[in-house]
């Protein structure tokens, strides 16, 4: 088919009539489908059910160092839980603090501590006239939500297949001491699936920052979430902590991860890794607010996942459920949108999302129309700070939760709504 932008009015009108009819048929189906959030499907959650039926013998709650996990104590986690979480954080167990069940909470708390108390003796960020933060876009809406809650000025920087535009990042951090940090999802970035190249990691670690208290919030949420054995065998992001040490900036990064999309979302185990100086500051501040996190859950996770090999095996079972959904997204977008022009999308090797760019000015309208037909997508604009995508082009596709047949219907709706929004824009 000819790209829409090259069609004359009469062909566009014929196309509009065809799409109107298709839209009415879809509406008549009374769909109620949700592709808004990257939640694991029920089948994925079923993979971890043995976690809940761990043997109830008299050693079930005793950790390897003899700790009775039913009781208080152990601020920064059981030794075996640190070992397990170190696999996700690509760091040494003694650099790990195991937290509660949400990495987002750990990130929020880390930010809030710097805001309130400052970084290693520097002025608390709340005392500064303004705090600025670099946000690779499109990015994760809840990262932006953390900053929004504190009134931080967010600076969008484009993300490419190999990470953020580093020329831009280096320029911004060199110029302004009020720029205090950057969000990074280094592997299978939400939503584009970008994987940071080793050069990008080295540049982040070594760049000259005007702020002495600049921090990289390294959210490795999808560290083991490969969609194929090939990706699992070949994709590995350079260790940012190691790169920071080599560059003489050992305290620059805080790493975060969780088992939310490995075991149970919101009921897994979260952890962070950092330098010894960062760790002692974090422990000090953390100890005012918690006596110790849920060690029974830590123990259950260690016994269920065991080690790096155990995690790898478990993630293969997730991939077997997820990969056909990601394949279907690629097929449907190719069939449905490749001919009209001005659309592009990512083909991630792992993670939870596909990032779709539709003709500028059409994303919001396409998402609105889809909702009218009963398909809920992530709000257009959510992948940008303040929910404002200046091109109104990006839509995040989250294919994990619906079944394959529901996903197929939802993608038919999405394709129809994008096409219709574009035709209407051209005819307006
Ligand atoms: N970080 C990223 C990049 C995510 O995509 C998500 C969930 O979608 C989270 C963090 C949330 O993690 P948690 O469940 O550990 O709070």
UniProtKB/TrEMBL annotation:
UniProt cross-references to Gene3D superfamilies, sorted A to Z: Aspartate Aminotransferase, domain 1, Type I PLP-dependent aspartate aminotransferase-like (Major domain)
Molecular function via GO: L-aspartate:2-oxoglutarate aminotransferase activity
User: What keywords is this UniProt entry annotated with?
Assistant: Aminotransferase, Transferase
Q: Which organism is it from?
A: Berryella wangjianweii
Name one matching Pfam family.
Asp_aminotransf
Any keyword Transferase? yes
Q: What is this protein called?
A: Aminotransferase class I/II-fold pyridoxal phosphate-dependent enzyme
The keyword Transferase is annotated on this UniProt entry:
yes
Known SUPFAM superfamilies for this protein? PLP-dependent transferases
Top-level taxon:
Bacteria
